[in-house]
Structures are given as structure tokens and as C-alpha cells.
Amino acid sequence: MSEAPKDIEDLVALMARLPGLGPRSARRAVLKLIKKRALLLIPLADAMQAVAATARECLTCGNIGTTDECDICTSSKRANGELCIVEDVADLWAMERAGIFKGRYHVLGGTLSALDDVGPDELRIPQLTRRVQEEGVTEVILALNATIDGQTTAHYIADQLDPMGLTVTSLAQGVPIGGELDYLDDGTISAALRARKAL
Amino acid sequence: MSEAPKDIEDLVALMARLPGLGPRSARRAVLKLIKKRALLLIPLADAMQAVAATARECLTCGNIGTTDECDICTSSKRANGELCIVEDVADLWAMERAGIFKGRYHVLGGTLSALDDVGPDELRIPQLTRRVQEEGVTEVILALNATIDGQTTAHYIADQLDPMGLTVTSLAQGVPIGGELDYLDDGTISAALRARKAL
Ligand SMILES: [Zn+2]
Ligand SMILES: [Zn+2]
């Protein structure tokens, strides 16, 4: 990238670290930003600074919000006894877009993975059993990706919750094998939630 | 996107306008930015502000630099009589990465397009004939994309330059180095066959 001024090289290098952008698309993106300085580049820099200043993880569920407890955790309407377990915030957003789930969430922050050396303590699993007891949860819905690691994690959590005498279900029908929630349309997610089965 | 705080929704919407990122990959990118606040989000916001403050188009050639005249236009070493015409700055960067062209550039800012109503005056074409005369250009190299609009533009420029008595060439079309025929489109193979040379 020695063909561009250093400021621009630096920006291309940072942009290329975003998921979905390689070096070539990062260069294209930066050129578009420079062309649309007032309409895109400056608003984007401002929006990033705003998010850097305000965004934080909900201390209870791991959702991204602007306060220590997210809107869903503080809303008494969402305390219906249902707790939906997702791998990450993108999956929580996908569930919310589907608009059919009215309970609360618990964001694990990943899946168990022997290969990547991720155990229960690296995820938000110890907090889960505490929440289930303290919040009067009656049903835990496992909305993990239909990948091997996702399903291993689902079974591990189901085993942990087994002695606590609550209903544990998982999204089943409608989620294709190997499919990730965030790729699915809203209707598929709704159908899978309605058809959830006891484990 | 009503599932996320407004600051984050705004950032996702702006990111989704970048080439190569759709709504889904914009959401993934923003979540990664939030996770890597100190290492990625803040440096990226700072880099964007630096570029917004310094980047500008070279008044002569259309390259992106930090001064009214870019490094290539101000370098006397690059005044070798060769002028390379490219569609946009990304193509100029690609030529510079190849490292073999030692002359100067002229960035058109697009191609002629009847469909999109782009005529010569929308591009940096009027300035081209002026430059050719003032800078003692002896050879114009047309490095436009091998698309219909690119080739239409190349022929238009060649016609404009015809009365000026200089050499007008274009990049050879053919099989890329290391390219396997089986992977190439028919147009490339046809062009390579038409341009075949005696060994
Ligand atoms: Zn929360
Ligand atoms: Zn220049």
C-alpha cells in the first residue's frame, strides 16, 4: 500500500480487519469514504466515536446496550419466566427481529470448543444457573446454532439445568443442519420457536 | 434494527453503505468493533477523522493525496513523457503495486456510459488534452477495464488524441500470468486468441 499517503494506508489496514472485508474491498471502501466525505466519512467517524463512548455489555445477560443493565433485562414485561440462550449478540438481534419471543436472553459469548480451548468458565455459563434461580425462570430455550459446537454446548447446558426442575427446550424445526441463526429469515426463526421441543 | 440502541443502529446503517458490506455483515462488523473497542473501534474512528482532515484529490491527475498536487505529479522523475489513463484511484494503486510503470497518471473518475448518462464532461477528459500538450506527453497508455464501457471510453479518448500526433497504446489483453484456461471467461480466451503472437 506504499502507493497511498500514510493516513489512508492506516485506514485501509484497519478496515481490512473487519469481517467481510479483505484488502481489496477495504481499499474500495476507503475510496468511497473519501469521495463521500461529508455524507459518509465524517458521519461514520462520528457514529464510531458515539458508540465507543456509550456501548457496553449488559452485566446480566451480555446484550449490548448503553447502560449497565440492558432494556430487555430492566423491562418487567419481559420477565415471563422464559429465558432464551444465544451464542452472541447478533443472534439476539436476529431473535428480536423475528419479534415472536417475549422473554429474556442470556448471551453465552461463544460455544464450548475443545479445539479452541473454550470451557464453561470462558462463556457466560456460571452466571446462567444463578440467573435461573434468582429470576424464577420456568423455561430455558436453547437457541444455539445447529453446528457441532453449538449442539455440544446445548447438551452441556441442558445437563447443568437438569437437576433444577424446569423445562428445557431448543429451537428445532426449521433450523437447517449447519445453519446459523443470523442467516435465517424471520419466518424460519418464528416457525422454529413455535415448534420448539423438550430435550 | 430496533433491537439495538440508536447509536449502534446508526453505525450499522452507515457501515451497510460501504461496498462489500450488506446489513448482515455490517452488524457483524459493528459487534466486532464494540468487542475490540480500544484496539479497533477507537483507532478506526481516529483514522477516519485523520483522512477526512487531510485527503484530497490531486488537481492535476485526480489521484488521492494530502496536497493540491500529488507526489507523482510533483516528482520530476515521473515526467518521462508517458501518461497512463485509469478509470479510478483503485486502478492507479493497482498499477503502482505492480511497480513497473514509471510515468504519470490521469484518473478519469469513471467511464463514459450512455445508460448512466455519463459524458466526457462528467469525467476528467477535457483536462486530458490540455495536460498532453502542456506536459510534453509522448505516449498515452490506456489502462481501462476490459468492459464494454471501459473499451468505449478508450476508443473515444484515442479518437480525441488522434490529431495530436502521439503514440496511444493500451494494456494487452490475454491470459493472466499463472492463469488456467479452464478458469477464464470466454471473452478473455477469445481476446487472447485474437491477440496471439508468433513465438
Ligand atoms: Zn440484559
Ligand atoms: Zn497527481
TrEMBL record, chains A, B:
Xref: SUPFAM superfamilies: Recombination protein RecR
Pfam families reported in the protein's UniProt record: RecR_C, RecR_HhH, Toprim_4
Keywords: DNA damage, DNA recombination, DNA repair, Metal-binding, Zinc, Zinc-finger
C4-type zinc finger locations on the chain: 58-73
GO MF annotation list: DNA binding; zinc ion binding
Keyword Transport: no
Domain Toprim residues, every copy: 81-176
BP GO terms, sorted: DNA recombination; DNA repair
Domain of life: Bacteria
Family: Belongs to the RecR family.
Function according to Swiss-Prot or TrEMBL: May play a role in DNA repair. It seems to be involved in an RecBC-independent recombinational process of DNA repair. It may act with RecF and RecO.
PANTHER family given in the database record: RECOMBINATION PROTEIN RECR
Classification via HAMAP family: RecR (MF_00017)
Protein name as annotated: Recombination protein RecR
